[in-house]
Write a structure and sequence with these properties.
The structure holds two protein chains of two kinds.
Chain A lengths: L16 E4 L3 H12 L5 E4 L15 E2 L6 H21 L10 E5 L2 H16 L5 E4 H7 L10 E5 L3 E2 L2 H14 L3 E3 L4 E7 L2 E7 L2 E4 L3 E3 L5 H8 L6 E10 L9 E4 L4 E5 L5 E5 L14 H14 L8 E11 L6 E4 L6 E5 L4 H18 L12 H5 L17
Parallel strand pairs in A: 1-2, 1-12, 2-8, 4-14, 12-19
Antiparallel strand pairs in A: 3-7, 4-6, 5-6, 9-10, 10-11, 13-16, 13-17, 14-15, 15-16, 18-19
Helix pairs in contact in A: 1-5, 1-8, 2-8
Chain B lengths: L4 E6 L2 E6 L4 H7 L6 E2 L6 E2 L12 E4 L2 E5 L10 E3 L35 H14 L8 H8 L15 E4 L3 H12 L4 E5 L14 E3 L5 E3 H14 L4 E5 L1 E2 L8 E5 L2 E5 L3 E4 L3 E3 L12 E3 H9 L8 E6 L2 H12 L3 E7 L12 E3 L2 E6 L6 E5 L5 E5 L2 E5 L2 E3 L2 H8 L8 E3 L13 H19 L3 H7 L1
Parallel strand pairs in B: 1-7, 8-9, 8-16, 9-12, 16-27, 18-25, 19-20, 19-25, 20-21
Antiparallel strand pairs in B: 1-2, 3-4, 5-6, 5-7, 10-11, 13-14, 14-15, 17-26, 22-23, 23-24
The chains are: A alpha/beta, B alpha/beta.
């Protein structure tokens, strides 16, 4: 499979580090690891770069969350986002018109107000808007669904495919080798340390393996014999035909379990979720979700009722009990690192990759990623984050 | 206002046309060749495919953006306007982007301003306003579209034995033979039954009995038979949205919204015509054969006055005959085939190809490379591509994605056919498939007779 920047030859017999998954997490990590001085890095993917959730993404970016853990990591990520176009020499259309978390009820409004203390202490700038201010900001919103909102003025979005290309190009220019169509069959270890991978294109010896496999992360952890309680969840999105600008900011609406924005091409892009986990590896869209997304977004933006859906697609993520990611090294398998359980992985990737790369290269774990350890999922000391637009645990 | 005619408003002008004419056809008859502008570079675009499958004719109609005007019949009192271009689609200053084409190559938006976030932001905001798209629907239009009330019985999901998608000749034939075999059949078709045969495509066809027939008479017969077979055949005027997980096939139309769960699926969705590739092949006045045919025979609109036909088969020569019969001068037939004797009845060059089209807002001529390598210029205002077709197999691939390789229950017929028909004609094959689809479905369902005799 000949793809730009993707190595066609078979992987070499040995590397200093192998990253499983060529999505935004894996590619960003490969770039940052190379910046840390790790020399021979391979990224292997069972499909093509960006083929999983990175290429099926809502592409939103914010750092205003209700918990300090999320807000601090994402604030660092937002700073990194702003450096990247220049550093990677790629205009991936980072756009920061603001990110609005809409409150449709008094309860949500008060919840958003209460979160502002966290934002202040984490250096995240936010404004609480009343109903009139929200309606003035986005006149197309259904006035009956506007109680108010929390606006992060420097939140926004970036072109997700372009971000994948930018990292892919930057990483391969630094000598990282990226392989498509390579299935990992087994993670090999000896004496409690990772020693290599068995793949569909041969054996690779390596002292460091990182699981960035997105929806495929569960299987990789099982191969490594590492117990991390994560589950697969299928998420779905729609995009409409292009229309002139009408939704100026990114919008999340917990009431409809939905998030959306309008790209500079004019397409309205968004996803909603139904309660419960849709635990499947299928990436086919379903009609019940298509109907839910269409009706929910028309209820939010009534004028979308006359706009056609252009495409509808699905992707898989893995998620944990607290919906926060796992960024850690396995305690019983040295040098087996994971960056999985991501539901907000796109926006968090730039900082996570940088900090995880430093951890892998130096052994020092930054305080920003320390809360997202494996152990919390076993001890039940979960991270309490209340501003996520993701359904809870029970099955659908 | 004359009898059988309709009047609508187009950008403050009153347009009158015969009832049944499409909006795009009526506009072309009035001399409006530019219907829209391309998304990024604002190149002029006009009537191209005639069947609502290309992006070159979306207009805002009664407050709804992006309406495909080539398949939308003009109605009295419609308010129609174009969406792209400033100050108008005809005279668009952004057409000037052609002057900077060396700077604005594919993907240019990713290359500029990487190190200048403020400029990048300004640039992107400007692009969002310039990029081609209609305005959001008016409140009245959105309300009209979202508050439609569907008859209760049309919303009940149901499971017919056979669903045929596409009501052209092959689709009708498959539905008839499935119903004759005892199956309950739903025939999904967008618009009037008959498909491309309504524009007189393929003048003669071999019917299911193996006899050569005139297409218009055959179409009348099949459509009448379908109508006569109610309720064994239910015709739904709508679009099959897709084949979803769980075997759900939603159908949405003007007065209908149903979720079908058919046992057997027959894809009779037709085909897409293939366009030729050369610089300027998007200039208004460039049409696929089906579009020119539809204008001539279904809409009584002259597609142009001076035509060049590009082809790789005898079909192009036959269509050149039709153009001549309609009083249109056929300037040249560009036959791509090598080693074929040029037909004497037209000016034909063989082993030739178009290398570019000339003109800015409409095609004014083409440069043709002859078999000997020399390039000649020809003046024309119409270029017709008669270059074969590829099957419309979206539903087929969606069905395949949900089934194992060994599964049966889906067939393709007519020009959507991807199967080997052997020596069967398209309609013989459609009749055969209809029977097979019925048998397969009925074999799965509990047999009513047996149940009765057991009792």
């Amino acid at each position: 499979m000949a793809l730009p920047a993707v190595t066609i030859a078979a992987p070499a017999a040995t590397y200093d580090a192998v990253i499983i998954g060529a999505g935004i997490q894996g590619l960003a990590l490969s770039y940052e690891l190379s910046q840390q001085g790790v020399e021979r890095i391979a990224v292997v993917d069972r499909s093509w770069p960006g083929s999983g959730a990175s290429g099926r993404n809502g592409e939103l970016i914010r750092s205003a969350f209700s918990s300090p853990e999320w807000s601090l990591l994402l604030a660092a990520s937002l700073r990194r986002w702003e450096q990247l176009p220049g550093e990677l020499d790629f205009n991936f259309l980072l756009h920061q018109p603001g990110y609005l978390i809409l409150a449709t009820t008094d309860e949500q409004y008060e919840q958003r107000r209460a979160e502002m203390d966290v934002h202040r202490s984490c250096g995240v700038q936010t404004e609480l808007l009343d109903a009139a201010q929200v309606r003035k900001l986005i006149p197309a919103l259904n006035p009956n669904m506007v109680r108010g909102g929390l606006l992060q003025p420097n939140g926004g979005f970036a072109h997700h495919d372009a971000v994948v290309w930018a990292y892919l190009r930057a990483a391969t220019r630094r000598g990282v080798e990226v392989f498509a169509d390579v299935e990992v069959l087994d993670v090999e270890s000896a004496g409690g340390r990772v020693t290599g991978l068995s793949t569909s294109r041969g054996h690779i010896a390596t002292p460091v393996v990182v699981n960035c496999a997105g929806g495929g992360a569960v299987a990789i952890n099982q191969m490594a014999g590492v117990d991390i309680p994560i589950r697969v969840n299928r998420l779905q999105m729609i995009v409409t035909e292009p229309i002139k600008p009408v939704v100026p900011t990114a919008v999340a609406c917990p009431t409809i379990l939905g998030y959306c924005h309008q790209t500079s091409r004019g397409e309205f892009v968004g996803g909603t979720e139904l309660p419960g986990i849709d635990e499947t590896e299928s990436v086919h869209g379903t009609y019940d979700l298509l109907q839910d997304m269409a009706t929910s977004f028309v209820s939010l933006f009534p004028l979308l009722g006359g706009v056609r859906v252009l495409r509808h697609w699905a992707g898989t993520v893995t998620q944990t009990a607290d919906l926060a990611p796992v960024i850690d090294q396995a305690d019983r398998l040295t040098n087996f690192f994971v960056s999985c359980g991501w539901v907000y992985g796109f926006m968090a990737a730039p900082a996570t990759a940088q900090l995880l790369a430093a951890y892998i290269a130096t052994g020092r774990k930054d305080a920003l990623i320390a809360p997202f350890d494996i152990e919390r999922l076993h001890t039940g000391r979960l991270i309490a984050e209340g501003s996520l637009v993701v359904p809870g645990e029970e099955h659908r | 206002m004359s009898e059988g005619s309709v009047r609508f408003t187009f950008e403050n002008r009153e347009i009158e046309c015969a009832d049944g004419t499409s909006v795009a056809g009526a506009l072309l008859a009035q001399g409006t060749t530019i219907l829209t502008r391309s998304f990024k570079y604002h190149r002029a675009r006009g009537y191209t495919c005639g069947y609502g499958v290309c992006p070159n004719c979306p207009l805002t109609i009664d407050g709804v953006p992006g309406v495909l005007s080539c398949t939308t019949p003009a109605k009295d009192g419609m308010v129609v306007s174009r969406e792209r271009g400033w100050p108008s689609a005809s005279w668009d200053i952004f057409e000037a982007s052609a002057l900077f084409s060396r700077l604005l190559t594919a993907g240019f938006q990713f290359r500029y301003f990487a190190r200048h976030p403020r400029l990048a932001h300004l640039f992107e905001t400007a692009m969002a306003h310039i990029a081609g798209a209609g305005r959001i629907p008016t409140a009245a239009a959105a309300d009209r579209l979202t508050t439609r009330v569907f008859p209760q019985d049309n919303r009940i999901p149901f499971a017919p034995d056979v669903v045929v998608v596409g009501g052209g000749l092959s689709g009708c034939q498959a539905a008839i033979s499935a119903a004759c075999a005892g199956a309950t059949v739903v025939l999904v078709n967008d618009g009037p039954l008959g498909g491309r045969s309504l524009a007189g495509r393929c003048r003669v066809a071999v019917d299911a009995a193996g006899i050569e027939r005139r297409v218009d008479r055959l179409a009348d017969e099949l459509i009448t038979a379908v109508r006569a077979m109610t309720p064994a055949i239910t015709v739904i005027d709508g679009t099959a949205v897709g084949w979803f997980e769980g075997g759900v096939m939603p159908v949405v139309g003007d007065g209908v919204q149903v979720q079908l769960r058919p046992a057997s699926l027959v894809v009779a969705a037709g085909s897409y015509e293939i366009a030729d590739l050369y610089a300027g092949n998007d200039l208004p006045g460039t049409m696929l054969q089906g579009a020119a045919e539809r204008l001539l025979h279904r809409e009584n609109v002259r597609p142009g006055n001076r035509a060049v036909v590009v082809t790789d088969s005898d079909a192009g020569l036959e269509f050149a005959d039709e153009l001549t019969a309609a009083g249109i001068t056929v300037e040249l037939v560009v036959d791509k085939r090598v080693g074929v004797a040029p037909a004497a009845r037209h000016a034909v060059v063989t082993g030739a190809r178009v290398v570019r089209a000339r003109g800015r807002r409409a095609v004014r001529g083409v440069d043709v490379r002859h078999g000997d390598g020399r390039i000649f210029k020809y003046r024309c205002d119409l270029v017709v591509h008669a270059l074969g077709e590829r099957p419309a197999e979206e539903l087929r691939t969606q069905w395949l994605a949900q089934h194992s390789a060994a599964a049966t229950g889906m067939w393709t017929v007519g020009s959507a056919c991807v199967e080997d028909r052997g020596t069967m004609s398209a309609l013989q094959h459609a009749a055969h498939v209809g029977l097979l689809a019925a048998k397969t479905a009925l074999a799965q369902a509990p047999d009513d007779d047996e149940v009765a005799s057991d009792a």
